[in-house]
Every structure is written in structure tokens, then in C-alpha cells.
Amino acid sequence: MNRNKKGFTLVELLVVIGILGILMGALFPAISSAMIKANLSACGMRGRNLFVAITAANTEREALGLGNVWPKTEASEGADSATDPIGAGQGNTAEKYFLYLFDAEKMGTQEWKPYITGVDMSVLSGAGVPPAGDPKQLKAKNILWTVAANVTDEVDDVVPVLVSRNFPASKLKVDEYDGVANEEFKLGKASGDGAADTPFGNKAFVIIRKGGSVIQQTSRYATEQVVYSKNAFKIPESDGAKFEYLEPKGN
């Protein structure tokens, strides 16, 4: 008995490949959107957890007559000591600040005394921003967040204090906002060692406000009125230092 073995012809294979290509093209936007939303949610949670840990430390220190643990760019009267890295003007880059905040140099030893508890350094990475293999070697490329410096109790609750690094923090208000202007922020600004359209590129952003609320939105809503909820405010100086944002910089 003769049995003819018949496979796909070249034309049939090309047709199948074409159909698969069409299906993938139709599904890709939905898959991409779902991935962005998942990463936004995860990064928003990490930022919120970091904010809560900092706020808890601030509350504890206030009862001791000490200053908050937000970074300072000038020496602070509320510092633990004259050499306190959080309060003595040494937190002038995001990576230096977070190294001090987590006491990374002493991590794993009996002398380890981080300023915050309840979170680990994983809150600094995610959505394409890689964690540091060695906490002591934390670099700009390992930091997801731009962080506000010289934050006081008087700073309005709508002011961002943690901002995903693809957001142009240099365009945020550091003095006052009239509640009316509606400048659009262009996302995807490179920072640090240039790795850095991560996280989200020009597609989305995450912001944690001083009051604790979280904004995790697509680029369509990267505007002043959304970021500040149309609330006018003025930001005071802290110990002679102006409010500013510290971005991850360096290699």
C-alpha cells in the first residue's frame, strides 16, 4: 500500500505565518497596556510603602526632638549630630540619600541601624530598574525614584515627594503654583547613567504626594492640574534651604 506523506506547502506556511502576525499585531497593544498597568500598580505600592516607612520614622523622631528623615541640602538643626548624613546637607543625590537612609554600608552587621524599618531596598527598583546586587554598591541605575529634599510640615499635601525617574522632576514646582496653569510634562527623560527611560518610558508615571496619595497614570494625564489637583500652594524654605528634587545621578 502506498502512503503519500503530505506536508505544508511553502504558500500554506506563509499564509499561516501571516495570520499569526495579524493576530499578534492585534493582541500586542492589549498585552502591552496590561503590562504597563501591572507595573504601575507594583511601583505605586513600592513608592507608597517607602513613603509610609519615612513618615513613620519622622513621627518617631519628632517625639525625640529630632528632624525628619527627608534629605537635606543644608545642615539641619534637627539632625542627630553635626555629622548626621540625613540632616547635615550630605543627601545631595538620590543614591547617596538612599544609601544613608538604609544604612547600606553596615547592612548585615550588628552595627546596622537604618533610619527606616518595615521595608527593604527592593522598594527602590522595579519595572525595568534593576536592583543593586550589593546594597553597598547602590548606583543611579538601581534607583526608581527622584526624591524631594528640604521637606517640612508646611509643604502642601499635594506636592510630590517621590517621583518615578522617567518623570521630568526638574519641571515640577519648587516654590509656588497658582492652581490654574496646566503645563504638560514630557515623560521619558533620561537620568542617571542614561539607562533611563525606565520605568515606563514616555508611556506612564508614578507620583507619591506629601500627603500620601498615589498617582499612577498614563502620559495623557501628565499635566500640572492633575499632579497638583488644581490646588494652589507656596513652599517655604527649610533651615534656609529651598525645596528641590534629588534625581539619581552618576554611574
Structural overview:
The protein has 251 residues and is an alpha+beta fold. It has one domain. Helices cover 26% and strands 11% of the residues. It is built from three helices and seven strands, in the order ααβββββαββ. It has helices at residues 10-63, 94-101, 224-227; strands at residues 145-149, 160-164, 176-177, 204-209, 214-218, 233-234, 244-246. The strands form two sheets. A five-stranded antiparallel β-sheet has the order 5-4-2-1-7, with helices on one face. A two-stranded antiparallel sheet has the order 3-6.
Brief rundown of the structure:
The chain is α+β, with helices and mostly antiparallel strands.
Mean pLDDT: 85
Helix-strand string: HHEEEEEHEE
Helix/sheet category: alpha+beta
Major sheet: arrangement of strands: 5-4-2-1-7
Keywords:
251 residues, 11% strand, two-stranded antiparallel sheet, alpha+beta, 26% helix
Give a topology summary.
Layout: H1 10-63, H2 94-101, E1 145-149, E2 160-164, E3 176-177, E4 204-209, E5 214-218, H3 224-227, E6 233-234, E7 244-246
Antiparallel strand pairs: 1-2, 1-7, 2-4, 3-6, 4-5
